[in-house]
Amino acid sequence: MIEVKGLVKTYGTKRAVDGVSFAVRRGDILGFLGPNGAGKSTTMKMITGYLRPDAGTATVEGIDVTVDPVAVKRKLGYLPESAPAYGEMTVGEFLGFIAEVRGFRTKDARKTQVERALALTHLEGVSRQTIETLSKGFKQRVGLAQALLHNPPALILDEPTDGLDPNQKNEVRALIKNMAAEKAVILSTHILEEVEAICTRVIIISRGRVVVDETPARFRARSPGARLDEIFRQLTDTDV
Amino acid sequence: MNQICPLFRREFLGYFRSPVAYVFLIVFLFASIGLPFFVSHFFDANQASMQSYFFWHPWLFLFLIPAAGMRLWAEEKRTGTVELLFTLPITTLEAVLAKFLAAWAFLTLAILLSFPMVVTLAWLGSPDWGVIAAGYVGSILMAGAYLSVCSLTSALTKNQVISFVVSVIVCFVLILLGWSVFGSILGSVLPVWAVDVLSNFSFITHYEPIITGVIDLKDVVFFLSLTGFALFLNVVALER
Fold first, then answer.
1. Which residues of B touch A89 (CB under 8 A)?
2. With a cut of 0.85, is the ipTM above it?
3. What mean pLDDT is predicted for residues A81-96?
């Protein structure tokens, strides 16, 4: 479904991503872990076609992002880090705009998609409010609604639960889990418990390289009895 | 290319979602109509002509168009929405064109809002409609050329102030080369042919004939090719 082969990205002299490869199948929820600056976001941006890789490639449903980025963008729902959105628009206007660009050209089709996305993310109550007046948790949900709007076969979510309160976090996790059966999902997070709660696979990335790619259960079994963050620290402390 | 429509609409309406549009239109109208009235003595000239209105446009645009254009890309970069925009299924060219056309349409609106002056002229005298129409065409074409320069500088930075200052400097050079006062200074240092060649790159050289009613193909081609070239560089700057 999503296949990543030898992605490389260099900023100046720093190699941010250094030969990252993995594959995500339909039904998988891949937890992308790693210290800040390890290359998680850069890898995700290359899969979405926002950044051009210096080497390697990513394919989504067989379409190569370096060959046909627009076709890949049609297949993907993407939530960028900190959920940017046009602050002066209302939630409804913003999602309507996304729906239109996503190819829902008739008013009815647009309305159906927007209402579905609003319902999934529980945003009906604020659809007439401008985005800049919303709290961080609501903004995050607007970003999620935007990513889910066209019911894409593949989802890439950069820290989807960032800024949400514990209840909202649970809700978003449940939402992702419910959709996952017919989708391939990649999500990055700093919260190790999140990986255990919803992910079917975990990848740890450190200094631009994949250091772990296994199931959460095996990850935990690496050091029985230890806390997850201790295992995480052992694997990534070369970064500090 | 049918992706331009939704983007254009969002951009154009976006001006009116914030106070920017109203402040800009009011300042533009005060300045563009104030100058012919109070400096060029519009009524005292006793001519049914819009010459004194169009005469000021190169100088007026020098400050007002960078003010309208500086946010085009710089703001998207600062707020992070550029990442959202370029992970939607659109090409860079479509995005550049849509944003440019929306801003150009907005400037065209600002220019056409001077229509009460034309109505006054028609009521008081019998103006030459061809010359007035040519003036509007010239002014709108020149506004497009200014705007394309501003769009380009805006794409090079995420800081709107830098974008504004650089646009003003570039546009100032493009005016200066054709301004007779500066031309005579240049003439004392450079040979005549060199001054002629340089002045060919100026807005003024190609604008002044149009507002006297002479729409020469080479002047129209100048504005359109400058616009096209700046927008091409704009696409390159964003894709890099």
1. 10, 14, 17
2. yes
3. 94
